[in-house]
Amino acid sequence: MTGRRCFERPGRRAVSLARTAGGAAALGCAVALVASPAVAAEGLDTGNTAWMLTAAVLGLVMTVPGIALFYSGMVRRKNMLSMAGQCFAICCLVSVLWVLLGYSLAFSGDGEIVGDLGMLFLADLDLGDLRGSFPKSLYVVFQLGFAVVAAALITGSVADRMKFSVVLLFIGAWSLLVYAPVAHWIWGGGFLKEEGVLDYAGGTIVHINAGVAGLVACLLVGRRTGYGTENMAPHNPLFSVTGVSLLWIGWFGFSAGSSLSADENAAYAMLVTQTAAAAGALTWMGYEWWMVRKPSVVGLVSGAVAGLVASTPAAGYVSPAGGIAIGMIAGFSCCAACAWLKYRLGYDDALDVFGIHGIGGLLGAALTGVFALEQIGGAAGLVDGNPRQVWVQFEGVLAVAAWSAIGTVAILLPLKWTVGLRVEPGQEAEGLDYSQHGEMIGGDEAAVGQT
């Protein structure tokens, strides 16, 4: 099985449902569970279920409050509430769309491009349905976290100037038309999975997908008013440090949770994730320290995110040393992309979504082929240092990047021609908190327009 860890391996330890001693009631409960046809046939593992419940919660914490705090601290004060509100609203919107249609498009059917409508509204999901050794409903929630994070990340590229209504329209369409098919390609049995593309926890599906969408979106929306002449530094880096700290913790839900069981693979993926994040942070800090003689805290946490992003496709296939190498390469490359490439090309990616998630995801996908080890990955056909795997990884990157770019343009252009993408200049000047939501931090209307 390629692209995802096989979680239904032959010989997995069966769980004893009547392990605890004590009384007829407890024994009766155990007998009732054993008598359940679904449990008896598939083998519900309460340990795996408990772990996947935890992993699903950690994955959702990445967006609210993780990305919400990270992004709201990175923008100017007049836009911080809007930024947090977008992340919160996206979590709600994508959650509903995922249940109604998104999960079905991503994980039902056996089509090469997109799933079918077999799980529309999750109408066929029964209480006793299992995905391997834990409830299938839990798998729906676990995958929901990936869809929410991918959608929320995009908003950083167009921060400070996109209408709130357009954000919701765009993200709603993007999650169904762009994200769900890509998830199907690799995790749902689509053509990239058949090609052997490896993406353990979403480096291609989430980060390249969102990074490219963010780049296209910021180009279509245009630069912020005053970009390059006004001070647009983060207003509260402490919020960003807190948000990234929550992201780091939540990331273990995605990386270790992608083992889909509480086993040695989950532990190993967690270790690789930790080392890659730390290496990315130290590398970004060191590079910045050498270049400008002062290591910024924002740079330090950005390096950690770069390491986390790059580790995502590789976490279940490389050694801890490989994780450190991936983190270091990502820390340096993403720093260069944010500090040099963006200004060289002249695009206004406000919170460096493409520079960190797009570039970091690309590097992580490619380096997975370089550092993947057969005895760790266990994927069919995977061998140590396989040049062909590197090429296969690039095929996946190119396919996802092209689909994301084309899909984002197809969604945003009609919106630009009809309702318009960005707020009016006067609304942008006074800030999106007040112009879009009629609220401000502290409720001080006299502070409208301050940075």
> By helix and strand content, what is the structural category?
mainly alpha
Annotation, overall tally of beta strands: 2
Model regions low in confidence, pLDDT < 50 over at least 5 residues: 1-41
Mean pLDDT: 88
Helical content stands at: 55-70%
Side-by-side strand order of the widest sheet = 1-2
Order of helices and strands: HHHHEEHHHHHHHHHHHHH
Task: State the major sheet.
Answer: 2 strands, antiparallel
The percentage of residues in β strands lies in under 5%
Radius of gyration: 22 Å
Distance between the termini: 52 Å
**Helical run tally:** 17
Identify the overall geometry. Answer: globular
Describe this structure in words.
This protein has 451 residues and is mainly alpha-helical. The chain is 66% helix and 1% strand. It has helices at residues 23-35, 37-42, 46-74, 80-107, 136-154, 164-186, 191-195, 203-221, 237-255, 264-292, 297-311, 320-345, 353-371, 374-377, 387-418, 425-430, 432-437, and strands at 130-131, 134-135. Strands 1-2 form a two-stranded antiparallel sheet. The radius of gyration is 22 Å and the shape is globular. Residues 1-41 have low confidence and may be disordered.
